[in-house]
Amino acid sequence: MNPQAAFLLCVAMLLPASTGCSLFGRDKAAHLESESERLLADYRYERERANRLELLNNVLSQRVESLEKRLAIHVDGAEPTPVADRRQPVDFPSTAPAVDPWKPTLRR
After folding, report:
1. Where in the chain are the domains?
2. Which of 39, 91, 104, 98 is nearest to 65 (CA)?
3. pTM across the whole model
4. pLDDT, tens only, 71-96
């Protein structure tokens, strides 16, 4: 077998093998891209959930503070006063939208 024929035979055998390797690389890249998108979606969901929980925590902290003030007025007073005569602290707003920490909301 002459050297040119051996060279052409090697090239003919390596050509299909090299395209097969690139196909595996494309599949790997597509898998990594989909995994990256999934992780980004998870991160965004958890960030939004943390924001909702922080908002809920702030609302509940304000409510506790308001109730503590009401309790202090009731305990510190020498004699009980009618509710209408007491200065009422700002209470939990009844018209505020309900915050559900488990329901995702979308911000834009």
Report:
1. 21-85
2. 91
3. 0.44
4. 877 766 655 555 555 565 555 555 55
